[in-house]
Specification:
By secondary structure, the protein is an alpha+beta fold. It is globular, with a radius of gyration of 22 Å. It is built from 17 helices and 16 strands. The protein has helices spanning about 10-20, 40-50, 95-105, 140-150, 155-160, 165-175, 175-190, 195-210, 215-220, 220-230, 260-270, 275-290, 335-350, 355-370, 370-380, 445-465, 480-494; strands spanning about 5-10, 25-35, 60-65, 65-70, 80-85, 115-120, 130-135, 250-255, 255-260, 300-310, 320-330, 385-395, 400, 405-410, 420-430, 430-440.
Length: about 500
């Protein structure tokens, strides 16, 4: 047995480590597109210098019947983790999506630290870095922080190698990396991660004393009620988006939307940017079903939505500090305005609930138990949703990495249990990027959904311009007025 230094894996992270199965790999996959040339050897030096400043990424995750622990990889080889590759044929977007799909379907080597970077040199739009990191290391918010820590606001600074400990201390003193994520969200996107401070404080109590998770979960009346409500939810019915899974994933992403346009639509309609984007994606899924000959009128569909519960004092920690909530998607609704206000109503209900804290506590409790208990319990929850929906705020200024400006970025989070689809939204540099990952057996052409996404946003934008705001805003809770307006908008649209 190895004598390498060990430390136990947190209980919540243990649950994510053991959640992996061939049909759903627990990887967070990201794509960064550069403008201008990037030398591969220089890229590798920069990534190794800054990424490995986090000691966790030199450790492998060991899953043993006696428990799970982090263990130093005494055979660590950088070449196993940072690789160069090239696209075939035209080396365009279709070929890049095919490569990302292949990587998202391929497990990481469990005998090594569970992360890789793949550097694509010949993409027609410029060099591309594809990252794959196992969810047991951290949640999406933390990993975006880590990825952003590889970047700088100038090309010159991004080219420098750093003294790792001094660099980490300087970063923390200058401004919390966490603030680089949350500030743009609070100012513009109204993302779901920004839940009430009370919920964040309660989550902080769990994180500071995780051994009390079970007591907290089963001792708080409101949270027990949320658990009961979640357990009593009917399973999402079989559909083109919900069914038996294969081992092959497909990914696609749309051209970016101007953030100002999305904000303008939300402002005119009295909704958040998040409401607008979720309703537009729901419309795209509705259209996909109709085009395939399905009738969505009697179909119900939910998304599981990660909610950040990371207190500020944990901002630079790795690990998983988020809860999950169930969001109803009005997949049966044909009118884009009605769809928007239904999403806004459902989102408002979630922000007032304690579902997120309940699920964080539940994951901690499951992490304490055997794997044989974890998988059936998690499958019970995954049956109640058809997709995962993640919205991560990114910085609004241009960032540089290894001397080159980053033009675009995209990511996809894993799906759990029987869920076969994931929707991802990220804002960066005044634009909103939306991507989709699907099971090839269910939706072999996610690019079609992304085309519908752009069409649905254009429809909502034009409809907003046609009808104009009433008295400046229409509040989502004035439903009688809203439905009168919607009936009028149907006439305008015709």
């Amino acid at each position: 047995m190895s004598t390498a230094r060990r430390e136990p894996i947190a209980k919540v992270d243990t649950a994510w480590l053991r959640m992996e199965q061939p049909t759903n790999l627990m990887m967070i996959t990201g794509v960064i597109e550069f403008s201008g040339s990037v030398d591969f050897e220089h890229f590798r030096r920069i990534v190794a210098n800054r990424f490995l400043a986090f000691p966790r990424f030199r450790q492998k995750a060991v899953d043993h019947p006696r428990g799970c622990w982090w263990e130093e990889d005494d055979q660590f080889e950088l070449s196993s983790h940072i690789r160069r590759t090239a696209l075939p044929g035209d080396a365009g977007k279709a070929e890049l999506e095919e490569l990302v799909s292949e990587l998202a379907s391929t497990p990481l080597d469990k005998t090594k630290p569970l992360w890789q970077f793949h550097f694509v040199e010949n993409y027609v739009g410029g060099p591309v870095a594809i990252s794959r990191i196992h969810h047991c290391y951290a949640d999406g918010i933390a990993l975006v922080e880590v990825m952003l820590s590889l970047t700088e606001r100038s090309a010159e600074a991004s080219n420098r190698l750093v003294e790792q400990e001094a660099w980490k201390q300087k970063r923390a003193a200058e401004s919390n990396i966490f603030n680089r994520l949350t500030a743009p969200a609070r100012q513009s996107a109204g993302l779901i991660q920004n839940v009430s401070q009370k919920v964040v404080d309660e989550a902080g109590d769990l994180l500071r004393e995780p051994h009390k998770a079970a007591q907290y979960l089963f001792g708080a009346g409101e949270i027990v009620s949320e658990l009961a409500t979640a357990l009593l939810l009917e399973d999402d019915p079989p559909s083109r988006f919900k069914g038996s899974l294969s081992v092959r994933k497909r990914v696609s992403w749309a051209r970016p939307l101007p953030l100002e346009e999305v904000k303008a639509v939300g402002h005119a309609l009295g909704a958040t940017v998040n409401d607008v984007l979720i309703s537009v994606m729901t419309g795209a899924l509705h259209r996909y079903l109709v085009d395939a000959g399905d009738d969505p009128r009697d179909l119900t569909m939910r998304a599981t939505v990660p909610v950040n519960l990371r207190p500020l004092e944990h901002a630079r920690d790795l690990g998983n500090h988020f809860g999950l909530v169930f969001l109803d998607l009005p997949i049966d609704e044909t009118n884009p305005l009605a769809r928007l206000y239904q999403v806004a109503e459902f989102m408002g209900q979630l922000k007032r609930s304690k579902q997120a804290v309940m699920s964080l506590g539940l994951l901690a409790v499951l992490g304490m138990g055997p794997a044989a208990l974890q998988k059936p319990a998690l499958e019970l929850f995954s049956r109640k949703a058809s997709t995962v929906l993640t919205n991560v705020p990114g910085p609004q200024q241009t960032l540089y990495m290894a001397g080159a400006p980053i033009r675009e970025m995209m990511f996809w989070v894993p799906q759990t249990g029987s869920i076969g689809m994931g929707i991802s939204i990220i804002s960066y540099r005044g634009q909103v990027f939306c991507g989709l990952i699907t099971d090839n057996k269910l939706v072999p052409d996610p690019e079609t959904v992304m085309t519908h996404f752009l069409e649905e946003f254009d429809n909502l934008l034009h409809l907003t311009l046609l009808i104009g705001p009433q008295d400046g805003h229409v509040a989502p809770d004035t439903y009688d007025e809203v439905h009168e307006w919607i009936r009028g908008s149907d006439q305008v649209a015709r």
